[in-house]
Amino acid sequence: MANKSLGRGLSALFGEENLDPAIPPTSAEPVKPKNGFRNIPLRRIEPNRAQPRREFDEKSLQELENSIRIHGVLAPITVRQGDNGYYQIVAGERRWRAARRAGLDTIPAMVIDADDRTMMELALIENLQREDLNPLEEAEGYRALIDQFGLKQDTVAERVGRSRSAVANSLRLLSLSDEVRSMVIDGKLSSGHARAVLSIQEESKRLAAAKTMADTGMSVRQAEAYAKKLNKPAQEDKPVPVPKEFQPDYYAELQRKLEGALGRRVHIENKKNKGRIELEYYGDDDLERLVSALAAVIL
């Protein structure tokens, strides 16, 4: 759930009567509207080069494009006017991209005055409130505010409505290796898993541990416990075994495949040197269907 502190300040920025529910608020310095709402040609608008969001989900973008073709753009984007006569997007790049794909010529926009820092804060807050950023994009947004504008971590936290510890923990993710970063970006690891990886003292063990966490579906708590085991002194250089509960269950997977293929409950009982498979059927007609399905099934 988005932090409630992100919900303050839009009325101070734009005025209650011009409040755009799709544009997030900020605790930054007040931003004054400049000529308010207008329809702007899409060719006169350029994206924000400091946009913290780098990944746009193709499926959701396609859905938004289809909606815009039918209903148009319902929530105006927010832009500022640049010195070159073009407008730079402050909030709403996804809507801008979908509108271009839908073949629109213009898009409704709220034009504001905003310096570079305020522009970056607004873009970051919009994405944080919508939970659109992956953990690394969020961390890179914080780092940009610190490096480019000289803000301290507690100031950044106050600006975006996060706790200082949340910002500090997020920034730690930037020390991950490229391979583990890719796993976070692809959604194979959460930020909690990534912090568990960073807690492993020997960097040479981190990538293998990250792959194990992703492949076995560990929870964050389980990943933290696994990292602690890796940090314990090795005994006779024996590798730390993956806990049994995280090892692949071949028979359970085979049982799921059979149930999906046959459309009925399947039970596999495996013993040391033998086993049995139980299949349910419901009447003579269903038994005939089962026999036919068994003859045709390919695992």
Automatic annotation (TrEMBL):
<dbReference type="Pfam" id="PF02195">
    <property type="entry name" value="ParB_N"/>
</dbReference>
<feature type="region of interest" description="Disordered">
    <location>
        <begin position="17"/>
        <end position="37"/>
    </location>
</feature>
<dbReference type="InterPro" id="IPR003115">
    <property type="entry name" value="ParB_N"/>
</dbReference>
<comment type="similarity">
    <text>Belongs to the ParB family.</text>
</comment>
<dbReference type="GO" id="GO:0045881">
    <property type="term" value="P:positive regulation of sporulation resulting in formation of a cellular spore"/>
</dbReference>
<dbReference type="GO" id="GO:0007059">
    <property type="term" value="P:chromosome segregation"/>
</dbReference>
<feature type="domain" description="ParB-like N-terminal">
    <location>
        <begin position="38"/>
        <end position="128"/>
    </location>
</feature>
<dbReference type="GO" id="GO:0009295">
    <property type="term" value="C:nucleoid"/>
</dbReference>
<dbReference type="InterPro" id="IPR041468">
    <property type="entry name" value="HTH_ParB/Spo0J"/>
</dbReference>
<keyword id="KW-0159">Chromosome partition</keyword>
<keyword id="KW-0238">DNA-binding</keyword>
<dbReference type="InterPro" id="IPR050336">
    <property type="entry name" value="Chromosome_partition/occlusion"/>
</dbReference>
<dbReference type="GO" id="GO:0005694">
    <property type="term" value="C:chromosome"/>
</dbReference>
<dbReference type="Pfam" id="PF17762">
    <property type="entry name" value="HTH_ParB"/>
</dbReference>
<dbReference type="GO" id="GO:0003677">
    <property type="term" value="F:DNA binding"/>
</dbReference>
<dbReference type="InterPro" id="IPR036086">
    <property type="entry name" value="ParB/Sulfiredoxin_sf"/>
</dbReference>
<protein>
    <submittedName>
        <fullName>Stage 0 sporulation protein J</fullName>
    </submittedName>
</protein>
<dbReference type="InterPro" id="IPR004437">
    <property type="entry name" value="ParB/RepB/Spo0J"/>
</dbReference>
